[in-house]
Design goal:
The protein is of the alpha/beta class. The chain has a single domain, classed as NAD(P)-binding Rossmann-like Domain (Rossmann fold, 3-Layer(aba) Sandwich), CATH 3.40.50.720. It has eight helices and eight strands, in the order βαβαβαββαααββαβα. The protein has an eight-stranded mixed beta sheet with strand order 3-2-1-4-5-6-7-8, with helices on both faces. α2 links the parallel β2 and β3.
Amino acid sequence: MTIDGISTIGLIGAGHIGSQVARAAIASGYDVVLSNSRGPETLVDLVAELGPRARAATAQQAAEAGDLVVVTIPLTAIDQVPVEPLVGKIVIDTNNYYPQRDGQIAALDEERTTTAELLQDHLPQSRVVKGFNHIYSAQITTDGTPAGTPGRRALVIAGDDPAAKATVTELLDGFGFDTVDAGPLAEGWRIQRDTPGYGPQLDAGQLTEALAQAKRYRDM
């Protein structure tokens, strides 16, 4: 079942997470528009696998087409995310900071900001919500269960816009997951790599406890 007002999900990035979110979205009845840094022609096989609800495009076109857009690209490339077509839209940020991949980013090393806040700074008129960053990509399409299932897996969100978080919560429920709200984007560090909630399959109560136990890198 789809969310009112959202029929198409745009994906900026079509790697491990992006392709799995696309699969989950199609299974829930959405159309998807996929993009990557290498061009639509490199997504022919994936689109063929996904079927008629999927099409490949440029990042600009995916941003324009999506009623909701998922940004799932290396952190170093977020300054290439189109800004204007995402004004007013909900944007899900899936990123994690890996210095060996992304290079050293002083503001993150010094814990003055978070990855999702960096994206929000780049997209000042979009409504950024952190999501999908602490689940192994393959599990996005295997771990979902109906609402009310005992031990149902939960995923964390964080964001500064309550309405945007409510929409993402509804999206995740449709994908088969409960949601734990970590609070504003600034609290997204509680589910970054090396924290207790990063990776394990936890229900809402367990994940809430894992967030409470999280420590800043400087305190580890």
